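[09:14] KT: can someone run the structure on this one? pasting the chain below
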Amino acid sequence: MRKFSLIAAAFALATGAFWMTMLTSPPKSQAKIAAGIDTRELTLKLNLDRGATYDPY
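[09:31] RB: done, structure tokens below
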């Protein structure tokens, strides 16, 4: 029973330390929006053959 009490106390201490850190100085996100690719513009710049049987759009 003593071993369980020590594990529970250690878990409670670690949980409290985690939440104190998150509440006082949370991590800052470094994410940014990636530039999109305009596939229509790329297709129009390809200079496709006029006599070909495919159609880009």
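[09:33] KT: thanks! Residues 2-24 form the longest helix (23 residues).
[09:34] RB: yep, looked fine to me
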